[in-house]
Design brief:
With 386 residues, the protein is of the alpha/beta class. 42% of the residues lie in helices and 16% in strands. β3, α4 and β4 form a beta-alpha-beta unit. The longest helix has 21 residues. The protein binds pyridoxal-5'-phosphate (PLP). The site of pyridoxal-5'-phosphate has 11 residues, from α3.
């Protein structure tokens, strides 16, 4: 038996995130076969709405796997062993992306940056000129581990185009929560996950594939069977997936995408931006500092905050969880114990911002950190009045 309603927590993690009841209920749609008319209709609806969210005319596919499956799919379909690709490294997820390339036998040319910063278009250009024989750029758009968004992605897209390089973007923690027009920014493969800004349960990865990417895929050797995109393309003609899809989550995704269309992408992105700004101002009113120093690159979907000295990460999060029923995350890798991370994703609204700011402020006070909860709430409120 699962958790009862009274035990339910507010999920302010950088994924998975809170899921609307409408989406949860869609998962109890009776199971059907995945080779019949009902599934074909579901497939078509999901595809059309995904194209809207990705802002693309390219092909889109839904994979029964978490986001990492989408990454593995991109790398294995686009990189031949021995080929060099550029990977900017600015946190845990970009490290994983590089690792994925290495496991495939590719050669990641790493642009290693301090955590809390983002890759710049000029740095990317320099490496391309220096290396000469790169095939692609693989990069994370929103580094979930540091709360940084690579805001120069549109310029990087132009550079990729000029140099005839493929651009593959891990947008797992941002698509649907911030600006990302896939076609306009020349993104050849964009990858996201169901459990973040789309406000859907975990279990699906979604990828878009451009014509330029298809040309490369056709020439790529030795593909994995489960993640073979050419096979997915063949089945897509019949509005089917090659293997058994996770039907309940497909129904959930369909509902989650309908909600996005009802709200409108632009409005949704603005709502994320506003809530993120409210979070940033509130934590600064508490005397805390934001992990990425440069304001421009602070993420609108993952809020990373430095933990003050003498404050114990685990204790604060325990109080928030047990007393206020709010879940937030700690740091990953070398940032473990050093930062808090708050997800600002999906259904995020002033209500969740106030509850979280209140819980964080009170928990910090309980462990002896001097602050005014009222000041934090007041700072957040300003963003919702204007
Ligand atoms: N890439 C980024 C940027 C992420 O934020 C995550 C998950 O948090 C992943 C990859 C891995 O996704 P998953 O855990 O769904 O496999």
């Amino acid at each position: 038996m699962g958790r009862s309603l009274t035990e339910r927590k507010l999920i302010m993690l950088p994924g998975p995130t809170n899921v609307p009841d409408r989406v949860m209920q869609a998962m109890i749609t009776p199971i059907t076969g995945h080779r019949g008319a009902e599934f074909h209709k579901l497939y078509e609806e999901i595809k059309e709405n995904l194209k809207y969210v990705f802002q693309t005319q390219n092909d889109v596919f839904v994979l029964t796997s978490s986001g990492t499956g989408g990454i593995e799919c991109a790398v294995n379909n686009l990189v031949n062993p021995g080929e060099k690709v550029l990977v900017p490294i600015f946190g845990v997820f970009s490290e994983r992306l590089s690792d994925e390339v290495r496991r495939r036998g590719g050669i990641p040319v790493e642009l290693s940056l301090p955590w809390g910063t983002a890759p710049k278009a000029s740095e990317i250009r320099e490496i391309i000129e220096r290396e000469g024989d790169l095939k692609a750029i693989f990069m994370v758009y929103n580094e979930t581990s540091t709360g940084v968004t690579a805001r120069e992605l549109p310029e990087i897209g132009k550079i990729a185009e000029e140099n005839n390089l493929l651009l593959i973007v891990d947008a797992i923690s941002i698509l649907g929560g911030d600006k990302l027009p896939v076609d306009e920014w020349n993104i050849d493969m964009c990858i996201t996950g169901s459990q973040k800004c789309l406000a859907c349960p975990p279990g699906l990865a979604m990828v878009s594939v451009s014509q330029k990417a298809w040309e490369k895929i056709e020439k790529t050797e030795k593909k994995l069977m489960y993640f073979d995109l050419t096979r997915m393309k063949e089945f897509a003609l019949k509005k089917e997936t090659p293997f058994t899809p996770a039907l309940p989550i497909f129904w959930a995704l369909n509902e989650a995408l309908k909600i996005i269309r009802e709200e409108g992408l632009e409005k949704r992105i603005e709502r994320h931006r506003r809530c993120a700004q409210a979070f940033y101002d509130a934590v600064e009113a508490y005397g805390l500092t934001v992990f990425p120093r440069e304001k421009e690159i602070r993420s609108n979907t993952v809020i990373a905050i430095n933990i003050p000295e003498n404050v114990e990460d685990g204790k604060v999060r325990q109080i928030m969880r047990e007393k206020y029923k709010v879940l937030i995350a700690g740091g990953m890798g070398k940032l473990k114990g050093k930062i808090f991370r708050i997800g600002c994703m999906g259904i995020i609204s002033p209500a969740e911002v106030f509850i979280t700011v209140n819980a964080l402020g009170n928990a910090l006070k309980e462990v002896g950190y001097d602050l005014s909860v009222e000041k934090g709430l007041e700072a957040a409120k300003k963003h919702f009045e204007s």
